[in-house]
Every structure is written in structure tokens, then in C-alpha cells.
Amino acid sequence: LVLAVELLVAFRDQAQWSSLAPFLYLIAAWYGIALIDRAWLRSGARVAPQVYAQLGLDILLVTAVIAVTGGYSSLLTEIYALLVVASATLLPRRVIYAMAGVCALAYWAAAEAALAMGSTGAGANDRAMALSVLLNGLAFVAAAYLAELLAGKLMATGRELREHQHVLASLRALNDNIIRSMGGGLLTTDLSGCVHLVNPAAERILEQPAEAVLGQPVDRVLGAVPETMLGRRGEIRINRHGREKIIGLTVVPLKVNGATDAGRVIHFQDLTELRRLERELERQPRTAESPTRLGV
């Protein structure tokens, strides 16, 4: 939008247009190349050739812009340093200093072109240009060094982050496998008493899928669980499809970082069949006789 307004204003003033036209044409070309580069990236092309091509075009455009905006007196020289920093994040480390050297040579070419075109302004001379090229070349090398250090730290941090993510994924998979392999039911709740985790054994004992249990208050899932059972083992009775089930459970606090209470962990088993067998054994008469009575 700013470029369009500037073009409109300059077009109405012929004198201003003649001085600004080269610069504005270059900026418009820059935007066009950026759009082409974006389309190229979306087409699935290889990234490495595209990076080299984009940086090469950027160097050419920056050189042209600096040439028409004053050469070594231009205020846009720092764009070369930005290109050096960009190369440090996108290209191999050995290429960074080569990029700084290319930028220095390009800046020299822009300064020479500006002198030839007379766009440098009054008082321009070869000595001042040489000093500017030398100082800016050193600045580009310094930018390359700092960018290399920063890129190295970023890469090291990225590798460490990926390693931690791999370890975390492995631990999460191990945790999921342990929970799924448990023979007893497992529920976890938050501080409000809503269920956050259900293992397959819990689904089987409760005769409900996880989707019907997650997010529900634990009282609706297991019935009232007295707080007196916290840290102790007890039994409750629940009704499932007209059948009473005896559930043995243990409730323990769910701790975060070993200190903060984040909810409850409930481990339970279906004791219905075990209790039925115990009652049958109690009702059976004693048939064993002592040896002395058998001999009478």
C-alpha cells in the first residue's frame, strides 16, 4: 500500500518520478520475486537450491538499490548484514563467511556503480569509498561470526529439544502400555472429582466405554467414595444393568512435582465372584472326619 501511494505521488510529479523511478521499480521487482519464491516453495521444490537462488537474487537487488540510493553513502547498506544472518540460519556453516565476502564484493560493486552514475552526491571520492567498503566488509564478517555462534546455539538447542521430545514420547508410550496392561481398573480425577483417565480394565469392570466416563464426576461412575477411604483399601457396591457388583478399591492422592495435590488416583477390582465363592464355602458342611472317629 505504501509503495502504491508513493508510485502515485511520484507519477504526478515528473521531476520526482525521474529520481525515484529506478528505486521504486526495484522495490516492485523485489516484491514480485518474493511472490514467485513463495509459489516455488509451495510447489514442493527442493529447499536448498531455492535458498541459494533466493539469496543470490536478494544480493543482486540490494546491490542495485544501494547503487541508486547513494552507493557507499546509502542508508540501506545494513541489509547486507541481514542477508548474512539469514544465510547463517539456512545454509551450512562454511558458507556463512563466503556469503559475507560476496556481500562485501557486491557492496564494492554498488559503490563503484553509484560513483559512475553520479548518485553518490557531492564530495564523493575513491578514498572515502575504499574506507567504507573496508569497514563494511569487516562488519559483514563480524555479523557472519556472530550469526554462526547464534546458529550453532540454536541448532544445539534444537537437537537437545528433539532428544527430550523423543525421551518424553518413549516415557509416555511406556506409561500408556503399563496402564493398558494393568489387570485392575484405574481412574484418575482432578480436584473437582471429574474423571480424566480410564484404562481398559476399568471400562470392562464398569461396563462402560471410556467416552461415557471421561469428564463425568466420579460419584456418577463409582458412586459415593468416602473421603475416609483416602490412603486405605475398602469396598463399595455398585449396580450395573440390574446386577450388584462388589468393588474393592484404593484411593490415593494424585501429586504433581511430589507436593501439589492435583486430584485422586483410584485403583479398583471386581470382587463379586470372589465374595460369592467365599459365601459358598461358608455354607458348605464340614465333611472331614478325624481319624479316631473313622475307626469307631
Task: List strands and helices in order, with pairings.
Layout: H1 2-12, H2 14-42, H3 47-68, H4 79-90, H5 93-117, H6 126-181, E1 185-189, E2 195-198, H7 200-206, H8 210-213, H9 218-222, E3 233-240, E4 243-256, E5 260-270, H10 272-283, H11 291-294
Quick structural overview:
The protein is an alpha+beta fold. 63% of the residues lie in helices and 14% in strands.
Structural commentary:
This protein is of the alpha+beta class and 296 residues long. It has eleven helices and five strands; from the N terminus they run H-H-H-H-H-H-E-E-H-H-H-E-E-E-H-H. It has helices spanning 2-12, 14-42, 47-68, 79-90, 93-117, 126-181, 200-206, 210-213, 218-222, 272-283, 291-294, and strands at 185-189, 195-198, 233-240, 243-256, 260-270. Strands 2-1-5-4-3 form a five-stranded antiparallel beta sheet. Helix 1 packs antiparallel against helix 2, helix 2 packs antiparallel against helix 3 (47-68) and helix 4 packs parallel to helix 6. The longest helix is centred in the middle third of the chain and has 56 residues, at 126-181. The termini are far apart. The model has no long low-confidence stretch (mean pLDDT 80).
Which short descriptors sum up this protein?
296 residues, alpha+beta, 5-stranded antiparallel β-sheet, 5 strands
Could you tell me the mean pLDDT?
80
The low-confidence parts are none
Round the Cα radius of gyration to an integer and report it: 39 Å
Indicate the proportion of strand residues.
5-15%
Succession of helices and strands = HHHHHHEEHHHEEEHH
The percent of residues in helical segments reads 55-70%
